[in-house]
Amino acid sequence: MRDAYVESLNELSQDMMQLAQIVETTIANTWTALESLDNKLASEIYHGNEDINTRVRECMKKDLTISLMQTPVATDWRHLMATQKILYDIERITDNCADICHYIFHLNKEGGPVTPPTGLQEMYQVMASMVVDVLRLYNEGGIDDIDLIRDKDDIVDMAFTKSMEEISEKMVKEPNHVRQYISYVLIVKYIERMADHASNITDWILYRSNNMLK
After folding, report:
1. Can you tell me the mean pLDDT for 21-27?
2. d(CA 203, CA 166)
3. Which residues does UniProt assign to the signal peptide (predicted)?
């Protein structure tokens, strides 16, 4: 019975590592699509999101099965509980990638391109590094760099505020391009949300470690 329990935990761990790789690739490809306004790549990401959600739900099901059927010890229970919550944030992160791709379609549909907000690439890269770092910490079982990840979330928040101000000014100066700038408002908001979800994952990593920061 114990062997089956350990095997189930190992299988879930392998699934989570594979999911992390898929998430990292999706985030990287989403930026490529956004930077180049590549409708084809955006469509692949948008329509492929359901496959990622299916993987997430499969991991959730395995996690719940272990929690309910295998009688985990206290340490493992905290790990399983944290994994369930982390999976929700992972699903939302990839949903936001699909959301961004949806607005790439809008940017292309509304006519000629407009200049994206200053610092958009840097904002996206900081967010992407947060996701990569938290998934690495989850899979490696550590809590190093938690404070650094949270500091990055503050950087994304500041970039979000600055971008909103810049887009508002451009809407006034270029009223013919308001629809495109609205798309950028939503894109920037999704990036900010992705960083928030990454920050949420740090809380559950700390919960799992039973070493919450004061």
Report:
1. 98
2. 32
3. none
Q: 2-209 falls under which CATH superfamily?
A: Phosphate transport system protein phou homolog 2; domain 2 (1.20.58.220)
The total number of residues shown for the chain amounts to: 214
pLDDT tens for residues 41-94?
Answer: 999 999 999 999 999 999 999 999 998 887 777 778 888 999 999 999 999 999
| Burial zone of 169 (CB within 10 Å; 0-12 exposed, 13-18 middle, 19+ buried) | exposed
Whole-model pTM: value is 0.93
Q: CA-CA distance, 62 to 11, in Å (whole number)?
A: 9
Distance, in Å, from the CA atom of 33 to the CA atom of 31, rounded to the nearest integer, reads 5
Do residues 152 and 129 lie in contact, with contact meaning Cβ atoms separated by under 8 Å? yes
Q: Name the H helices within 37-119.
A: 39-69, 74-109
Residues ≥6 apart with Cβ < 8 Å to 78: 207, 208, 210
What is d(CA 93, CA 90) in angstroms, rounded to the nearest whole number?
5
Q: What is the pLDDT of residue 121?
A: 97
Q: What is the widest separation between alpha-carbon atoms in the chain? A: 69
Cα–Cα distances in Å, from 35 out to 46, 87, 109, 146? 16, 28, 16, 29
